[in-house]
Amino acid sequence: MHFTDLTITALSLLAAQASARTIRIAVGRDGLAFSPSSVTAEEGDVLEYHFYKQHSVAMGDFSSGCTPALQGGFFSGVMKTSGNGPNKNVFRVTVNSTEPMAMYCTVASHCQKGMVGVVNPTSTDSLDRYKTAARAAQANEAPDGMFGGEMVEGNDNTDGGSRTSPYRPTGIASGDRATITGAASQMQASLGVVGAVAVGFAALLI
């Protein structure tokens, strides 16, 4: 019984990981804008921010434009990028709720000028509503430092945008990406590990 429960739980976790997406968002590629500025994400999906010029991304508060979220949230810190291409580093945030999230750039008055976005918008917490709140903001506030995500080195030359791909784990300490490519390959390799662990547990139960 315990062996069966363990196997089912492990397989469920692996299936959820394999179906998670990486949602790429370009920060400042198209001027004072997030591209795309509105996205839909499920729990376990990863928001991957690609930076241009000098910008940042922070989770905001729908009721108060250009201010950090009151609870939780994330902040990339200000990313300075030379030239016209993307920064070599990307900021990755794992989505842990399907509730609406506002995001904004903390640099200068970029937020008030419309550099905002929304994840999982609704009729009440919409992009238009947050843009209105941002325009009325008296100041553009930023958290003290980076938190709520991981800064890693990008593994290719893509420039962000609305494309999505299966989630692949990243090394938090080193920033190196896993060498396994593709969700199917990842699942196959992980199943082998789960099988070995399950057999070990079965032996203990005999």
From TrEMBL:
CDD domains cross-referenced by the UniProt entry: Cupredoxin (cd00920)
Keywords: Signal
Domain of life: Eukaryota
Residues annotated as signal peptide: 1-20
InterPro entries recorded: Cupredoxin, Ser-rich/MCO-related
Organism: Epichloe festucae (strain Fl1)
The protein, known as: Extracellular serine-rich protein
Region annotation Disordered: where it falls in the sequence: 142-174
Ranges of Polar residues composition bias in the record: 155-167
Coiled coil: none
